[in-house]
UniProtKB/TrEMBL annotation, chains A, B, C, D, E, F:
Example of a GO MF term: manganese ion binding
PROSITE patterns tied to this protein: GERMIN (PS00725)
SMART domains listed in its UniProt record: Cupin_1
Organism of provenance: Solanum tuberosum
Family listed: Belongs to the germin family.
Binding site for Mn(2+): H75, H77, E82, H127
Annotated Cupin type-1 domain residues: 28-181
Chain residues that bind oxalate: H77, E82
UniProt name for this protein: Germin-like protein
């Protein structure tokens, strides 16, 4: 539903046809489906597919559950800042800040978070979340976009279809072609 | 801290001087200070005062705790959409949707929320949160502004300094001047 | 008509099919239809229904006429700042400014306006216009949105369909249920 | 005054120090100072210099008075759409619409306006207002910018300091250098 | 293709159906078609018609080739800033800057550019490019809009259909009607 | 220089003090300084440091020169779309497009570019440029931000200060700690 200007693509209900259910979603007290990886995390995403009324509102949310040593591998959200709040467990978070005058240098801003701690990841910054503890950990993430997007860096670099050229990856990462093949096997 | 263009007013640290603490805040596993009212709620707000790095990032958060029958009275957020997630208890939420062709008519979109339920309040809509249950209730709210603002309607109408003219309130609410005086006594 | 990117929902004419009539509207030298209330005002709105070319242009206008003691009751425009210019009569205007550090406190910025006086109401602020004089009064209002919206507070609080819960209104306004019933009778 | 983020450059009062006078201006029931030209019009502009509270609000206004055969010569507003309302007299308005596929072709959208008529000029379109009648004419203009800007085309082309190269003007307008000199004498 | 919200009007491919060709265009190593004028320039424009993937991305480009003494006559781009880079030849560029306090006065910012020189024209400023040399000249222009638009001032003023009123042009430019007729003959 | 609202941080000259030099820069007909790496490319960036007038204008540019087999390793621009135009040589370009429904899958959109070919990289997409040929290659890049930013992925992942935790990199890339050490040695 859009109160201002109607927008197409995603359906944009006439306000007269909308009702409270369009602004409601449930099921965020439990974890989402495990991801099809061995990384040990799952995401339960609250987006426009679950709550149609979010369309055009510029906000969304997700719940992430991490097993002990579970990792959300290095990734970026190209269209949103992420505000993290830890509900349970111990989560290590960090994002990489480029040196504005030398793109080959950067700093890591990282922190160990406990329940009730919050951390913010500015839009498009490379970041990770990692469960350092021996018990499950859960955090909520708010995004200031209805569609933040997610670019999982290792999967994008080594698992794309078609693959990035061998020469590019060998030179870009200064790794043997054999290691590149190993990486491709992991992430395709 | 601002990655793009530096902005004044709120301090805007040079990226070189910022560190991880600027992006961190804690203490959201407990309720905030009770409000100086008899409404039975408290708010623990995560904003730029608690987390300097939020400056210019366009996002913030709050935790609200409601005692049994606690009420966040009718209010609006003039600069943000609010996405609510219930952590504990039973919370009745609702917002008022104007009829776009007749401003004297409107619909209420309301819902009773349980833990794990979410509800979204579009920017500037009049809304309320009410603990219908006999136990404490807690929800998180995300906002897509670093400074959503809050206009508590009864306090704004009947408690402003100086007060809104008697004649305006008497006519506007079709109430005796005596009732207006009673309202002013409550909300000033 | 849209010069930049075509936008759907509201029709968006191809520039080739548009003509001068799309950018023209008339009839703002007289008052609009009286509102179906006893408040004593009428609005003559210049919006995209009257002038199709306004679509996507981010501006609109209205002429308001107030009988003696006519009142535009407390309301907000959720999507626009309003710039008022008095053409005739004496109009009392005011808007409520929240204390940014204490949402239970607020100030009223008010003024008595005569012909040629202007006043601005920032977006989403609760405000009123009131004809203090014994003759008709007229003002123009400009808005920086093609669809500013209007939330008439008393009608939204006490006249929505379905109604806001009794308990919420009784507690929120500290009024007897009988007074709430009276208010509902006035504004439904 | 800025309710959201403080912005510098133009002063941006802390909300605590602002008062109703910051949102008020007067004197728009009379014409402004005549312009230092023989074009026969004057402008009374309501901008941030007259009303400090406009700062950051994205709106402004002007009253224009045209003598009989007074002309606001071809101009553009680079940062705002203009919504015109005629208060008195007969005003011819028009703007030029480029053919999106051939920049050497364009259409004129024009109209003769009477009191109560409105016309909208999309941002940055070349336009003129002309008093076709034998009596004074007045219109109000609303702008969706606090600083719409105005580029008077003849004065910019033929009166800039330093002047645009002779060859450029001779070739650009296919006029004798003598005519260019005449134009410069008029508009410098 | 649109990664964020789908937008209609221009087609907006589902990301699943897009491919590399949508983001590719060729042929900018040669000049575009000569314009149907005697001004001596041609434009080779890289826009959404040549590269469908540009849709919603807010950027475009053009290559301009100027014969000796070729002139891009005074014009504005209503929706983009233009960043010019000279590849070959000697190009005189200039834009007109209004005096913010007196719209009848303005300054010209101009420069003679050689290969490797860059110049920026802020959005909606009247500007010209002129080949001062005796050899061909070429520049690239980047725009921060997918659809910058172009208003060729002489063609808009003297070649519109229908024409701007005689009286308006005579008075606006302080020229004899005969000269206006001459101008119309050149630019229609 | 800022025509609209003055903005601080970067200096924002009063228009009265600006002159043509603020909008001019030179030296883009030659390559920039080689980067302090063995990647074989250099960048000559046209930004606000070289052209002060770019401030607030939302546009910038860069010239990139690649030696044979030179590579701009995987990187993103967090604040701008990049429009590439090849001036000389043969350049392989590609960006990775996430599957919007499965973040562990992605497609590569790639292309071999020759002089006169253009390619666009949407904001924040991981991409590479690679000189496939045996001669030098040069491309221009336009950005729709005055400060696009650049995140060199390998340098951010393996060269940050302090480093990202061993466990995170080992698990995130499924590589031996020894290989991680090798990577760190390359990119720190």
């Amino acid at each position: 539903m859009c109160f201002a200007v109607f927008v197409n693509g995603r359906f944009c209900k006439d306000a007269k046809l909308a009702n409270a259910d369009d602004f409601y979603a449930s099921g965020f007290n439990v974890s989402g489906m495990p991801t099809p990886t061995n990384l040990g995390f799952s995401v339960n995403a609250l987006n426009v597919n679950r709550m149609p009324g979010l369309n055009t509102l510029g906000i969304s949310m997700a719940r992430a559950d991490l097993e002990p040593f579970g990792l959300i591998s290095p990734h970026i959200h190209p269209r949103a800042t992420e505000l993290i709040l830890v509900l349970e467990g111990t989560i290590y978070v960090g994002f990489v800040v480029p040196d504005t005058r030398n793109p080959f240098k950067s700093r890591l801003f990282d922190k160990i978070l406990h329940p009730g701690d919050a951390f913010v990841i500015p839009q498009s910054m490379v970041h990770i979340q990692y469960n350092m503890g021996t018990t499950n950990a859960t955090h909520l993430s708010s995004f200031n976009s209805q569609n933040p997007g997610v670019h999982m860096i290792p999967y994008q670099l080594f698992g794309s279809n078609p693959p990035i050229l061998d020469d590019v990856l060998v030179k870009g990462f200064q790794l043997d072609k054999k290691v590149i093949e190993h990486l491709r096997a992991q992430f395709s």
